[in-house]
Amino acid sequence: MNIGIIGIGNMGYALSVALSKSKEDTILVYDRGKYKAPKIKNVIRADSLMDLVKSSDTIFISVKPIDAEKLFDEISLNVEGKTVVSVVALYPYSRMVEKMPKAKICKIMTSIAAETGKAPVLAYCQKELYESLKRLLERIGEPYLFDEKIIDALVPITGSGPAILAYFLDSLSQYMVLAGVEKDLADRITNLVAYSTSTYVLKKDVDFRTLTKKVTTPSGITIKILQEFDKRTLKGDIVDSIYSKVKEYIKL
Fold first, then answer.
1. What is the pLDDT of residues 11-51, one digit of tens each?
2. pLDDT tens digits, residue range 54-96?
């Protein structure tokens, strides 16, 4: 199968790495500007946008929202019978159907962590199409079929999640620097804590509150730190910050 990826920024690059895992498929990539394609045998630069579109069975769209409208207009006459998978954040499914009525369209949301093959992949499309795409999406991570409104509401988690997590993990790293640890080592230790904790939660299938109870002890330093967070309403402020910004883009 030929898989095309239009837009090779950070997201498109991650998709090309994840989707190239099956050596039976050819991954065609294209971007209007200068771009870096993975040096993987079955990842090939297309000569042009139309070359990619006409040569691909399934096409992933990974461009900026501001560029999506023009792109869909350009390819609309050449995607009849093809599957188009959009990773364009908050771009309406109905608008894609309107512009490409003869294509099979699926809207997904994931993040640059897709490069690991372990990212969540939220999808909105007809169930039959989702089932036919599922094995392909599993190269990216763990796919789930959702209503479009939920996918849009969860963009800060599935799409922006790595940046938001990095923001808070950097706070832990900065504390270690304050305690006398060099920044590179502080980042390394913080990443190990995050990775091992995430692995533990997934392996043991425990929720976050249960994990918190396992780590804290009465009058211990952990519970005192968490109480200080609650005193400063840190958790509520995080939720409110995300909610207030999402409301600027969609109606919740």
1. 999 999 999 988 889 999 999 988 888 888 899 999 999 99
2. 999 999 999 999 999 999 999 999 999 999 999 999 999 999 9
Q: For residues 187 and 212, give the distance between their C-alpha atoms in angstroms, rounded to a whole number.
A: 22
CATH code matching the domain that covers 2-158, chosen among 3.30.70.600, 1.10.357.10, 3.40.640.10, 3.40.50.720 = 3.40.50.720
Amino acid in position 252? L
What residue type is 109 in one-letter code?
Answer: M
Residue 195 has pLDDT above 80, yes or no: yes
* Measured distance CA(137)–CA(121) in Å, rounded: 7
**Helix 183-204, helix 161-178: angle, nearest 10:** 130
pTM of the shown model: 0.92
Tokens 């994840």 identify what position?
18
Which residue in the block uniquely carries the two structure tokens 């211990």? 220
Beta bridge partners of 107: 86, 124
In Å, what is the CA distance from 54 to each residue of 68, 78, 86, 92, 150?
18, 7, 17, 24, 33
